[in-house]
Amino acid sequence: MARACIDGNEAAARVAYAFSEVIAIYPITPSSPMGEQADAWSAAGRGNLWGTTPRVVEMQSEAGAAGTLHGAIQKGALTTTFTSSQGLLLMIPNMFKIAGELTPTVLHVAARTIATHALSIFGDHSDVMTTRATGFAMLASSSVQEAHDLAAVAHASTLKSRVPFLHFFDGFRTSHELNDVELIDQDDLRALVDDGDVLAHRARGLSPDRPVLRGSAQNPDVFFQAREGINPFYDAIPGIVQDTMDAFAARTGRRYRLVEYEGHPEADRVVVLMGSGVGAVQEAVEDLVRRGERVGLVKVRLYRPFPAAQLLAALPASVRRIAVLDRTKEPGAVGEPLLTDVTTTLAEAVMTGRLAPTALPRVIGGRYGLSSKEFTPRMVKAVFDELAKGEPKPRFTVGIVDDVTHLSLSLDPDFAPARREGDVEAVFFGLGADGTVGANKNTVKIVGEHTGLHTQGYFVYDSRKSGAQTVSHLRFSRDPIRSTYLIEKADFVACHQFGFLSTRDVLGAAKPGATVLLNAPLPTEAVWDALPEPVQRQILDNDLKLYAIDAYRVARELGLGARINTVMQPCFFALSGILPRDEAIAAVKQSVQYTYGRRGPEIVERNIAAIDRSLEELHEVPVSEKVTSTTGMRPAVPPSVPDFVERITARILTGEGDLLPVSALPVDGTFPTGTTRYEKRAIAQEIPIWDPEI
Amino acid sequence: MARACIDGNEAAARVAYAFSEVIAIYPITPSSPMGEQADAWSAAGRGNLWGTTPRVVEMQSEAGAAGTLHGAIQKGALTTTFTSSQGLLLMIPNMFKIAGELTPTVLHVAARTIATHALSIFGDHSDVMTTRATGFAMLASSSVQEAHDLAAVAHASTLKSRVPFLHFFDGFRTSHELNDVELIDQDDLRALVDDGDVLAHRARGLSPDRPVLRGSAQNPDVFFQAREGINPFYDAIPGIVQDTMDAFAARTGRRYRLVEYEGHPEADRVVVLMGSGVGAVQEAVEDLVRRGERVGLVKVRLYRPFPAAQLLAALPASVRRIAVLDRTKEPGAVGEPLLTDVTTTLAEAVMTGRLAPTALPRVIGGRYGLSSKEFTPRMVKAVFDELAKGEPKPRFTVGIVDDVTHLSLSLDPDFAPARREGDVEAVFFGLGADGTVGANKNTVKIVGEHTGLHTQGYFVYDSRKSGAQTVSHLRFSRDPIRSTYLIEKADFVACHQFGFLSTRDVLGAAKPGATVLLNAPLPTEAVWDALPEPVQRQILDNDLKLYAIDAYRVARELGLGARINTVMQPCFFALSGILPRDEAIAAVKQSVQYTYGRRGPEIVERNIAAIDRSLEELHEVPVSEKVTSTTGMRPAVPPSVPDFVERITARILTGEGDLLPVSALPVDGTFPTGTTRYEKRAIAQEIPIWDPEI
Lengths: 694, 694
Hints:
- Two copies of one chain form a homodimer.
- The first copy, chain A, contains 23 helices and 24 strands.
- Chain A is globular.
- In chain A, strand 6, helix 6 and strand 7 form a beta-alpha-beta unit.
- The longest helix of chain A has 22 residues, at 231-252.
- The first copy, chain A, is α/β, with parallel strands linked by helices.
- In chain A, strands 1-8-18-19-17-20-21-22-23 form a nine-stranded mixed sheet, sandwiched between helices.
- At the A-B interface, helix 4, strand 9, helix 9, helix 10 and helix 13 of A face helix 4, strand 9, helix 9, helix 10 and helix 13 of B.
- Strand 24 (671-672) of chain A pairs antiparallel with strand 9 of chain B, so a sheet runs across the interface.
């Protein structure tokens, strides 16, 4: 089986493409890459499982894409689409009809926040939850590998069950995370499909050769009865999905269940959730169980039809307290959706005698991760701590400080799961469009595809895109990487823009003893003195090993213009210790061969020369024994700005927005105007000077 | 306080208009009349509560109407809109933003089925339930009076709370039911509004004089915190709504609570529901309590924020079994929405120690009334019977026969709540566009507005409209009429189309001893012999009093063309016994004065003459002592039609669609084509004859 380092979007799109004849698309962040890739593959004539090239149809909106889907299914075609957020909302009317007519299709959703007080392009489940009345079956993937595997389960199950599937994974966290994935062979995908199901679907398609009437109107006399006729199809879904998962496991070795328990076999406290948060909970649970705590985790994969029986079977009999985590907020609801599903299931188990009344666990509900808010093992620990209290909060939030309704849990700053021996975590601060992210994606692929190591790359952009800061988070490990959250304390920190050191807490990302690589527009011996006082202090206090290169100068001299990535990347390989130094350099050089080989030996030679030259220019920075600098950090905003700008805007600018409590932010999305004038990014390398002579 | 006989749409629209400055509309059945009336009032220059004329803006779709609403609110205007079904779905994206920005508005929804396997223009809660994640508060009205009163509560509460409200009532059953309503005085409406709330809303409106930024994008750092800032606004809503209801009661005497209990003070079985079904449950509960059963009813009025505390307080401590009735279907959900809300509330009461574990009632959930399927006291009785069983079905349907998944409850044919002395129920069979419905609406208004009697009119149309059968259901009573279902056995049955007697079971609607009025194109003495054998048998078996008039002939002779309503209406008044005959005739004549007064005395005289003439032509039909006819009913379809047409189409055509079980109907809305050719309605009064000479 082939391995590839791809993101969640590509993982799902590859499978969706293989199963489809008609692909209706309309781009919306963060699902756009799925549509773009499908479009590119189709343009290149790539075949699906049956060897035909899917027709990709781009419409005027997601409403049009849903209509195209609906029409194509009714003709008997195998179809799919990709969307997120408001785009998914526009599909709701068609979704009701597609499900009501028992027509198979799969909608792949990179789940994203719905705009409320503000728009957000980031991830949570508010979009998919708004479609839960449509009658679509729903499958949740919690990792890039799952986005690949469960996409296949969804396509096979929809054909078998006739019920359309919505397959979702977390926007950005999964859709844009690079991870190394075992690709499913086309043969294995093909084996999941029963040709009889495809032929039956085709036979139901509208055709002038066998005319039928569909999409009629019904009156009160018969509508209700007709609507109940679908019940057996829904009753069959859990069995069909599990059978498909089992068939999948038989061929690939990767085994999934509708609901899965992990943790202490006699856990008294259990967390229930779905989506990418599973990774963080897994790590916390493993760590806490090692420390002797009786805790566990229930992963929900099939969300609709809700697998009540499987949930009850998965929960250990010892459970006394359950926290259900929802990545959505439904103001005014008695509880968020997964919480009410789980609570109803347990209550009915008591009512029907499956569970003794006194054995009813106490269930509490928490919101987390709205709009891609970080969700870490430390937060999971806070949830388990809350569950251990005499009177836990019935409703809580985690990941923020709520000083208004006081729902938030406080975190234990000292808790973090033990890292595995040999794991390397690296963080890179760059500027949008400076090539840092592209080089890091390349690094992840080089390591993931050409060494035995597992890799993960996640890239934090500001939504202002070009010219704003980017932070790349790279992990390397001998074990599969499930850490679905940012790196807090890295082994390696690179700062590709020297100016950042004066405005942001760059070295706060470095763990004690870490290696730091600076792109400094200075001779090596001048670097130390150019650092602000707090940065020098961090280096000394944490015993950081400091390296520098004047990458802009080297790049210019090598004829690379401002593209410093070719210079910085070999330095990372040389210093990071992921691979032995020589092996690492050889790998980068090999990658140059891959990337530029088609352009001729001269280009390859020049790039390889650039690597050697860069390594020559990389120097360790001599560090004083004590702090010598007297300059402080540059304030994010000038002095005497309006109160709101000082309290809120400035903190967002310095990357401290996460620390703002609920009370700091406007309740209704209303902000003062004209605050961008206080925002001096000061990122220019060169300053134009007015020459009145010309 | 003035009384008026109006339908639910007008009841809500009058209040919405009074509270609004901008009304965005787009028509969709069954909410269209609200928009049409607002448009007409605005065109006529009618003022709102502040004396200004609302601007009515008709858009290109409901998405546009929602956008208009959003824009107008952001400018600080008082706004409203009206919609249903798919129209409401198109508003979802804007609803999230309107709620997220804490902007007051009220959306009045005549709740209607969302199209699935088939479209339906009829009523259930599938549309409003699909919006329950948006953050709108939701108020449910269960009668025409409530649609009027709670519209006012919604408009006042949204201004006070800043949270937008969705006010809904059942499509057709409430939106199109005529009932006599106590109108709220404009002074009383005005008194509900705190001017400070209006001024605060205006002050938040966008204006170049005090610029603010709204509708921005937020990143993961602050979105979650900002989203939690709305919590206090939602926490305040139950108190605000109850306070508004109390202020309303102080001025009008009509008292409402968020959740209300009715029934036996020590009930062991309780039904929970919202919407028009409340009327049927009230009647059943009163009757069963009189028979000694310990049963009760919980009406939910505020649905979002869900009033968990008020629900627990409303339930009698004695309750052991609860059936929650949802007028919607969510395939794949662990339970329908109201069911999971109630179950979660009770389970959490146990978990937090408010309720002893052994006191947890057994809760079961039922679907009813999808797409305006009838919901009667007999069905309520079936629910209470189910609750009394040792092992009640955890999920059930009521009102249909489900021979597939066997979820339906069987009904006790003998149960019907005792009728009150002096109540009159009348059923009229007419033809779309023959004037029957118009005349009956007029009758309801005459009686409702000019006598002390309470009245109700409900009109069943085929969705094929003109030329199809109409059935008018009229009730008259000294008490308010809460029967939110069709009349099964009437005191008076009129058949305005003689041909119906041969094709449908018209006299099945007559109770023993009822009066039957036929429009027969025959001399009185020929009527008996023209009746089919089964009809004669019904008349004799049930001791029906038979009257006839040749209304088409009389109308022609009076110069009224085919408008037989002027002929039939006085006959109804003369025979029905609602009022003493002379008083009744005087009332009809007075109504002619109202209706035609402006057209001059001659027209009035001619219509009054028509009344007198009609009464002269009305005769009792002599009835034989035994059945004399040998003709049977005319089959709905010719012999030897395809099996599907015989089993299904024919039964729908003869009005027996309600009796079709689940198994009879296609699971996915697929029907054979070309079946209309078997459908001979045979409704023409005159048959054109080909005259080759001309």
